[in-house]
Amino acid sequence: MRLFVPPIDVGPEEGFTPQKDLFGRAAVGEGLTHLVSTVTDPLVIAVDGKWGSGKSTFLRMWMGELRKVGFPDIHFDAFENDYFDDAFTALAGEIIGLAEEKRKEASTKAKRFKDTAVEVSKVLARSGLRLGVRVLTAGAVDGSVIDAMEKDVAAEASGVVDKLIGEKLTQQKDQKATIASFKSALSDLPSLLTNEVEVASSDEGSIGKRKKDKPLIIVIDELDRCKPLFALQILERAKHLFSVQNVHFVLGTHLGQLSNSVQIAYGLQTDANMYLQKFIHFSITLERAYADGGDGERRKFIDWLIRQHQFESSDRNLVHTITNYLIALADKLNLGLRDIERIVSSIALTLACSSEPEYRPASLICALCVLKVKFPELYAKAKVGDLSFGEVQSALQLKNSWGEERRRVREVLVEYFEAMLLPDSEAARNVRFPDNLAFHGITRASLLPYLTNGLIDRMRPA
Predict the structure, then answer these.
(1) Is the distance from CB of 372 to CB of 456 less than 8 angstroms?
(2) pTM confidence score
(3) Nearest-CA neighbor of 354 among 448, 457, 436?
(4) Which one of 140, 196, 330, 374 counts the least CB within 10 Å of its CB?
(5) What residues pair up with 46 in beta bridges, in sequence order?
């Protein structure tokens, strides 16, 4: 049995396969491909979803489909690159790397892009000098003093500046000309980087290779996990420096978290949604409504996780029952995929460190593992015997209707928790626990601490 499931391994040109496209998102990918194929104006598209909703896996599969039909593409992990001082340097470096990988760095177009990218980097570095003086003085001095200070700084650093940048501060019109040259060079790159693909020839149905120019697709993933200022800088650079014909950006992010980054950077009074609309043309939401019977993404994901964990055959019936409880709780509590993954790992650890003769109630194992991941403060109370029925009733939504199909799941959970936490309840009189628990001195009141400490958190062989 495995305690942890590795990420889904998607090959560079694998695309959406039935075995790995657990949520049937190939159709979404097809629509996205059609969009970037037919629109020549520069697009910025957000693939929106909460952390753990499968955005990265979807984007890797989609990029595999793009490569099959010859699209040039770049995958940029914003979280891994947010140590860069400027997002432009990181993004331009990825594009240069793609050209070099294809052994086209010596071509006129690739060399022109590389040279203009260097010049834009110089412009950005020079522009940052004035900003740096303002930041260091916290805005406490006026413009004339800053001008004087900049001259002093420039004079002191002239040797370093000349060495790193290669020339003195440019005027605004020179900066605009440099950026315009860079954009022109970038717009020439898609035709250079487009891959050859096999196509059927009109001559006797023969198969040959042909290249048809396609737009460059730059996928930026983990935008909601990187430093807020770096995330916003990426958006601004994409808008102002990389916005050219036949270059599209696709962002993997959670727009809610990105909105928080806007307010961190510009203040809580900022209209974050309005700000993001300036940079993102539209978004695609991966998450969708789930059927009441669990016939949705969560069921598919839970079933896949159970298979990947490779539980012992002797635990098969117990795991099947736990799975049914987890599907019901996951849908009722609207659990994210990453939460579900951690819950199943906790269940796997519990079963790995226990054996069949022990008291292992499927409903309580599942419910307590859900509390451990989703409501850790309540789980901590359960460990010391301080959890109240009202708290667990509210957290697991046991008051609400669960629908006819899941009515019995809810009833069992209510009965067990009432029997343990409400000594005067009808459930406390009717629900029987194994006789050997009392033999070992375990009472109804101490059953939750026993299960949490002695079963779920034991982490040692039975």
Answers:
(1) yes
(2) 0.71
(3) 457
(4) 140
(5) 251, 283
Six token digits for residue 213: 């120019």
Beta strands 216-221 and 247-253, pairing class: parallel
Number of Cβ atoms within 10 Å of the Cβ of 193: 22
Model confidence pLDDT, tens digit, residues 17-65: 988 998 889 999 999 999 999 998 999 999 998 887 889 999 999 999 9
Closest CA to 182 of 100, 244, 128: 244
DSSP H or E stretch at residue 217: strand 216-221
Kindly state the tokens that stand for 249: 């950006």
Burial of 348 (0-12, 13-18, 19+ CB in 10 A): buried
Chain centroid offset of residue 243 CA: 24
Contact status, residue 351 vs residue 392, Cβ threshold 8 Å:
no
Distance, CA of 400 to CA of 411 (rounded, Å)? 11
Quick count: other Cβ atoms within 10 Å of Cβ 67?
Answer: 19
Query: Going along 134-206, which residue ranges are E strands?
Result: 197-200
Q: How far is CA 192 from CA 34, 65, 114, 115, 437, in A?
A: 21, 20, 13, 16, 73
Sheet holding 247-253: strands in order across?
73-77, 216-221, 247-253, 44-48, 282-285
Please count the other Cβ atoms lying within 10 Å of the Cβ belonging to residue 32.
22
Task: Determine contact, residues 50/41, Cβ cutoff 8 Å.
Answer: no
Tokens of 111: 């060399």
Report the C-alpha gap between 280 and 274 in whole angstroms. Answer: 10
Give CA–CA dist 52/62, Å, rounded. 17
Q: Which residues are within 8 A (CB) of 140 and not within 5 positions of it... i.e. 6 or more apart? A: none
The CA-based angle 189-237-252, given to 5 degrees, is: 85
Can you tell me which residue has the tokens 């000098």? 129
SS3 435: helix
pLDDT, one tens digit per residue, over 190-204 is 877 776 655 555 555
- Residue 350's CB is within 10 A of a number of other CB atoms, namely 22
